[in-house]
Task: inverse folding
C-alpha cells in the first residue's frame, strides 16, 4: 500500500472552491502599514503567500489608500495574481465613500473596472442618497460586468452626527433589500454592529440569517488597528453563534491560516 498523505493521516476535510459557506475573505493593505499595521503584501510576498493560503481564501479587500496611491500597473498585476489563484479582489465600501465625497462615483466605478476589479462593495446610506441614484450606480457596475456586495454598517458610519446605536433586524433587511433585488450576491455585516448588539446578537442577527440564509451573509472582523486581538474575539463569537461554516471577512494575511483551525470544534477541543 502507498503511504498515506498528510491530509489523510490527520483526516483534514477539503472544502473546494467555489463554495457558498466557510468562506474566508482577506484584507490586503499592501505597503500601507504605518502607523497601525505591521503587515505588508507586495507582489513578491503575495505569490508565496497564495501558494500556501489560496485554497482557504475566497475574496480579498484591497484597501482604498492602496488603490489611490499605488502605481496602477502594479495594482493590475496584483489583482491578476489574486485572480490566477481564484481569490477575487473587491473594492471596499470606503472606495465608494471617497468617490461619493468627491462626486465621482460613476467615474470611480469605471476606473476600478479598468484596473481589473470584478467585484465592488457598496454600503447603506441615509436618505440623502436617493433610491434612483443607488439603482443607477448598481446598474452601472453590473453593466460593466461587476458583482455587488452590500455592506451594512451602523448608520452613524455614514452620518457621524448620529449617535451610535444597534440596528434592528428589520432595518438591516430593509437596507439590503434593494441591493439584493438589483443583483447583489452577498450582504456583509460590519463588526461594529455586533459590538452594539451585545447580548442581542443571536436574536437580531439571527433573524437576518434566517431571512437571507447563512450562505448569503459574511461577518466582518475587526482590524488589528483597533485592537490586536479583537479579530480573534469576533471570529470566536461568529463561529459559536452561527456555526463553523459562517463566512468571515477582514482577515489579515497573518491570520489566514489560523481561521480554519478556529472553525474546527475538534481542533479547538484538542488545544484546550
Result:
Amino acid at each position: 500500500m502507498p503511504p498515506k498523505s498528510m491530509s489523510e493521516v490527520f483526516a483534514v476535510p477539503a472544502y473546494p472552491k467555489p463554495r457558498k459557506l466557510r468562506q474566508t475573505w482577506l484584507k490586503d493593505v499592501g505597503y500601507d502599514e504605518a502607523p497601525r499595521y505591521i503587515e505588508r503584501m507586495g507582489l513578491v510576498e503575495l505569490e508565496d503567500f497564495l501558494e500556501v493560503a489560496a485554497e482557504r481564501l475566497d475574496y480579498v479587500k484591497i484597501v482604498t489608500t492602496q488603490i489611490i496611491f499605488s502605481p496602477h500597473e502594479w495594482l493590475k498585476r496584483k489583482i491578476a495574481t489574486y485572480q490566477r489563484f481564484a481569490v477575487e479582489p473587491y473594492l471596499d465600501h470606503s472606495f465608494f465613500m471617497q468617490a461619493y465625497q468627491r462626486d465621482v462615483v460613476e467615474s470611480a466605478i469605471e476606473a476600478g473596472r479598468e484596473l481589473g476589479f470584478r467585484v465592488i462593495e457598496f454600503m447603506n446610506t441615509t436618505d440623502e442618497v436617493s433610491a434612483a441614484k443607488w439603482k443607477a450606480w448598481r446598474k452601472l457596475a453590473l453593466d460593466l460586468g461587476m458583482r455587488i456586495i452590500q455592506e451594512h454598517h451602523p448608520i452613524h458610519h455614514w452620518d457621524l452626527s448620529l449617535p451610535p446605536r444597534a440596528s434592528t433586524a428589520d432595518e438591516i433587511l430593509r437596507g439590503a433589500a434593494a441591493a439584493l433585488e438589483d443583483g447583489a450576491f452577498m450582504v456583509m455585516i460590519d463588526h461594529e454592529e455586533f459590538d452594539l448588539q451585545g447580548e442581542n446578537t443571536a436574536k437580531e442577527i439571527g433573524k437576518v440569517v434566517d431571512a437571507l440564509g447563512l450562505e448569503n451573509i459574511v461577518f466582518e472582523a475587526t482590524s488589528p488597528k483597533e485592537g490586536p486581538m479583537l479579530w480573534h474575539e469576533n471570529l470566536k463569537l461568529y463561529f459559536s453563534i452561527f456555526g463553523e461554516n459562517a463566512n468571515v471577512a477582514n482577515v489579515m494575511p497573518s491570520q489566514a491560516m489560523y481561521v480554519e483551525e478556529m472553525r474546527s470544534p475538534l481542533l479547538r477541543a484538542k488545544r484546550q
Observations:
- The chain is about 50% helix and 15% strand.
- Residues 72-84 form the longest helix (13 residues).
